[in-house]
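Aim 2 progress. For Cytochrome c oxidase subunit, the working sequence is reproduced below.
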Amino acid sequence: MLDADAQKPPRGKWSTPPFDPRFPNQNQTRNCYQNFLDYHRCVKTMNRRGKSTQPCEYYFRVYRSLCPVSWVQRWNEQIREGTFAGKI
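Predicted structure tokens for this construct:
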């Protein structure tokens, strides 16, 4: 679940995230954070149901495109340590 490098799509398949009306402003920080949360919630839910996590790939691609790597690494460390502030 936390190994983002193992879930990268093939080279050349990345696209820019589409417009999200929830985040109309130039600052995409909240968009980044929300898609990070949505990805982890999706994976958790799909694993609990015993289904494929393929539908969660959209959120993964969006947060990987928008979020700085250092933020994602810090959030993943916090999740592992149990200190992450977001509700997953």
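The mean pLDDT is 88. This observation will guide construct design in the next reporting period.
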